Amino acid sequence: MNVVTFNDNARVGGNSARRRGGTVAAVGGGTVGLGAVVVLLISMFTGTDLTGLLGSGGAAAPGSGGERIASCETGQDANENDSCRLAAASLDIDQFWAERLDGYRPPQLVIVDGQTGSSCGTASNATGPFYCPPDETVFVDPTFFSILRAQYDTTAGPLAQLYVLAHEYGHHVQNLTGVMQQHPNNGTGADSNGVRTELQADCYAGAWVAAASEQVDENGTPYLEPPTEQQILDALSAASAVGDDHIQAEAGQISNPDSFTHGSSAQRTRWFDEGRQGGVNACDTFSVPGGSL
Questions:
Q1: Close Cβ partners of 102 (under 8 Å, ≥ 6 residues apart)
Q2: Nearest residue to 45 (alpha-carbon basis) of 284, 286, 265
Q3: Over 90: is that where the pLDDT of 206 sits?
Q4: What is the percent of the chain with per-residue pLDDT over 90, rounded to a whole number?
Q5: pLDDT score for 158
Q6: CA 216 – CA 27 distance, rounded (Å)
Q7: Are residues 69 and 83 in contact, defined by beta-carbon separation less than 8 angstroms?
Q8: Of 16, 152, 174, 293, which is most buried by a Cβ count within 10 Å?
Q9: 31 or 193: which carries more pLDDT confidence?
Q10: Whole-structure pTM value
Q11: Where are the alpha helices (DSSP H) in the chain?
């Protein structure tokens, strides 16, 4: 079921998102099936690139251009199409951060069609959304959301999709502000830099959601309508679903905080809400004692 998020008459054609990649690989022939969905989920939730299990497609070289997102001019287009929704949201997120961060420069947004190259490795429908710091680029394959909606008991609704995008843009902000350099990867664990980095990106996403309807196009029309309570719950559900403990439970494992890389479900929803209630200034996850994360 489509839930309106963008104002229908908002102008979104000025986005700089580009589509890159080749044909989506099939598992067992035909369209993407259950086997592919399992690979998608494992890859997205663990950060492990299992692209090889899905076969190969035409991969563009890192930094290559790509084409504009077709039929993506208005908020109505964004409400009707996942790729346009993500492209349109980039305008809103960029405006949000330009107003809050001196020297902000937008990342490139690549809508992945099958797979394409990046300096961080292959971006594909198996790796899930990610940010590549050397390229200053966010890679998202929107087929992930449609597969979840079609074959799993989840809404993966508009705001949940945009939470994922805003989370990746949060990593771009961390790259620009030096957070990634100041707090490099120091391994796994509930108190690791990796967990703190991910929770801060969740917090940034929550801060954006709270202010998303304040950003406007060149005519002064807000890009987005204020989120409904149901949409907020949908986004919180998405944050919870990618908690390390939930992922381990779904895999039939006992929760092991020593192996955490992104934080627990409770932590991810908590920090999303911290940002939503307190804004970006509430998102210093690196000054919080480990037991209070």
A1: none
A2: 265
A3: yes
A4: 52
A5: 85
A6: 42
A7: yes
A8: 174
A9: 193
A10: 0.84
A11: 34-46, 75-80, 82-98, 143-151, 158-177, 179-182, 193-211, 229-241, 244-250, 265-278
